[in-house]
Amino acid sequence: MPTDSRPGTGARAAAPTWVPSAAGGWIDERRRRLTWLLQLRLLPSQTFRLGVATAMVLVWVVAAQAVPTLTPASALAVVIVLGGYFLRLRQLTMLLFLVATALAYVVPRRNAEDAASISPAALLVLAAVAGVVVLIARSRERLGVHGAQGESMLVELRDRLRAQSRVTGLPEPWHLEHAIRSAYGDGFAGDFVLARKVGEERLDVLLVDVSGKGTAAGTRALLLSGAYGGLVGAVPSAQLLPAANDYLLEQGWTEGFATAVHVTLDLRTGAFEASSAGHPPLLRHRAGLGSDRWSVSEEDGGPALGLLPDVAFPSSRGVLEPGDALLLYTDGVVEAPGRDLATGIDMLSRAASELTQGPGLRGSARRLVDAVAAEDDDRSVVVLWRAGVEGRHVAPGATAGA
């Protein structure tokens, strides 16, 4: 949990933002293409892959007899690991039987000659490696995938769902940034952001915090982000949270609740409407008041999603004038053991004030999240602002994006 939300205080979280950099996206795409090439083109069938692994074992048997000092038993661990990566469980079992047969043939002869003999410890290590590989293969077999296909499917699904949070083509003077850090630096989190521009007049932003944290909540968050992504921008703003609540109730999960805040913005006039489902109150900055202080929205919201049927989610309305901004966040940013929620919100408000007084709001979502020292909860920040007449809140030379 966070201990201090002031910029520059505490250790930076190790996990990357949800929005990948251009270089990171290029690397991920190259990795996926390489995996596809290896598994579907160069190694097209299980029979072919098993044949390659068999040839590697036979080469080891010949080399173990010819040059025993250069052919340790540990070399077979590489074959076992590669087999677990590329083979299904049935073919992997056949490979392990072949490895055991090769060892049964080579070990007595090498040990009898005392020429680079194979110790019992080396055999135990190979057995341990084989056991771990089999457990992993069995887990993948339950999913109906093998090798890197399971990881590739999850990564591609995660990246496609994350793309729903990216909005391109926002007209000036509007800006939107967000950043998410998962608990303990995991690759999946229970927080997600959905944003969609509807035509040229409307922007919808939904920030959701699924119960749980890190990978434990990641699977439910992936499912909900896909379902809610079809709702954002597709239904009237007043119906979004009720529809999201109905969907979550239908799932019947034992840990089925989530908090959410939804903001819909008129890009022509700056009028906005915000509604909450058990979520921490949003922060608002009003440049026209002559202060860089962020105020807390005092309007009451409805209950968390997935708890009660047929509930209402009251909304508040306002107008973002030039220089104004909204700050949405999850409870992981403001909660900490031994500290009440109001204190955490006040600390976040002061941290945001330091940004508006100094470097501006470009990159503010990332800076606010990175200022959180603890890493035992998911943390998300969304900043939506309307630049002033003279570009207030935008640091010179800064670039957009979270």
Summarize the structure.
It holds the Pfam family SpoIIE. The chain crosses the membrane at residues 94-112, 118-137. The protein is an alpha+beta fold.
List descriptors:
402 residues, alpha+beta, Phosphatase 2c, domain 1, five-stranded antiparallel β-sheet, 16% strand, elongated, disordered N terminus, disordered C terminus, Bact_Sigma-Reg, transmembrane helix, hydrolase, Stage II sporulation protein E, PPM-type-like_dom_sf
Give your account of this protein's structure.
The structure is a single chain. This protein is α+β, with helices and mostly antiparallel strands. The chain has two domains: 26-152, no CATH class; 167-386, 4-Layer Sandwich (Phosphatase 2c, domain 1), CATH 3.60.40.10. It is built from ten helices and ten strands. The strands form two sheets. The chain has a five-stranded antiparallel β-sheet with strand order 1-10-9-6-7, covered by helices on one side. A hairpin with a 4-residue loop joins strand 4 and strand 5 (271-277). Helix 3 runs antiparallel to helix 4 and helix 4 runs antiparallel to helix 5 (120-143). The radius of gyration is 27 Å and the shape is elongated. The model is unreliable at 1-22 and 391-402 (pLDDT under 50).
